Amino acid sequence: MTRVVVSAFSVSLDGFAAGPAQGPDHPLGLGGLDLHQWFFSQKNFPPMRGATDAAHQVDAEHAAKALDGSGAFIMGRHMFGPQRGPWTDDGWKGWWGPNPPWHAPTFILTHHPRDPIRLEGGTTFHFVTGGIHDALDQARNAAGRRNVQIAGGVATIRQYLLADLIDDLQLSFSPILLGQGEPLLPGIDLKARGFTLTDRAIGAHALHVTLRRRPPQESVAA
Ligand SMILES: NC(=O)c1ccc[n+]([C@@H]2O[C@H](COP(=O)([O-])OP(=O)(O)OC[C@H]3O[C@@H](n4cnc5c(N)ncnc54)[C@H](OP(=O)(O)O)[C@@H]3O)[C@@H](O)[C@H]2O)c1
Asked: How far is the CA of 34 from the centre of ligand 1 (A)?
């Protein structure tokens, strides 16, 4: 059965998932790239003290599995690119080049209509102006029996959490402080919404946790 998942979403110790001042030179905001030390890392950043080969392997496995099982993706327009306001004819096709890593239909939430963009490797970007439910309906249809992954960014994941539409939330907490930027969880009571911790693993550069949402009746009965 299709599940709606968030996978390998990096969060700082102080709760930010993007730094401030996103722009062409800083897709993740100032300092935001450090959130992904665990993902890219291995050689470029010092591991946490005591990190073992097994811990490095934990990070590598989480990175390798990040897109597994997903047959469609949803993302916000800020994750797709640095433009704001109505689209201009600037030829922008996302940050990821001619063969993006999604390899599946990818639905981009925006208030500004735009024709789909078909790229190599199975990725087609569809621009959805009908809101989160419309995007999810389209993504479910496209995914078939596979999962729908809410890829980001922060405002997009928050909307799906607040609508109780995410089943599995896999977060990777990086041991950095951003101080400011886009905070992921303020005002969202994950416990009250039925999330429980189902998995945790210590990597060399992050703590990876998986939270699964149970339907309300299950939460009450438990
Ligand atoms: N930490 C991680 O692992 C991770 C992963 C992915 C992305 N990110 C980062 O997250 C940041 C982006 O997050 P963000 O919170 O700034 O923005 P976002 O969620 O990517 O996009 C927000 C924008 O999407 C459009 N949008 C969102 N919901 C909509 C709706 N219901 N209806 C219509 N349009 C809607 C709006 O754009 P318009 O009104 O302009 O159309 C809105 O301003 C980037 O820095 C990205 O690199 C981090």
From this structure: 19
Two structure tokens written together for 209: 């946790």
Number of domains within the chain: 1
For residue 92, is it within any domain? no
Range of the domain at 146: 4-19+53-83+100-221
C-alpha–C-alpha distance, residues 83 and 70, integer Å? 27
| Whether residue 220 has pLDDT greater than 90 | no
9 within ligand 1 shell (Cβ under 6 A): yes
Rounded CA-CA distance 196/187 in Å is: 17
Q: Is 135 in the pocket of ligand 1 (CB under 6 A)?
A: no
Distance, CA 157 to ligand 1 centroid (Å)?
A: 8
- Ligand 1 atom nearest to 77, measured from its CA: 24
The Cα 52–Cα 146 span in angstroms is: 34
Taking the C-alpha atoms of residue 85 and residue 125, their distance in angstroms, rounded to an integer, is 18
* Residue 210 Cβ < 6 Å to ligand 1: no
- pLDDT tens for 65-116 read 999 999 999 999 999 999 999 999 999 999 999 999 999 999 999 999 999 9
Here the CATH number for the domain that contains residue 129 is: 3.40.430.10
Residue 45 Cα to ligand 1 midpoint, Å, equals 27
**β pairing state of 70-76 and 105-109:** parallel
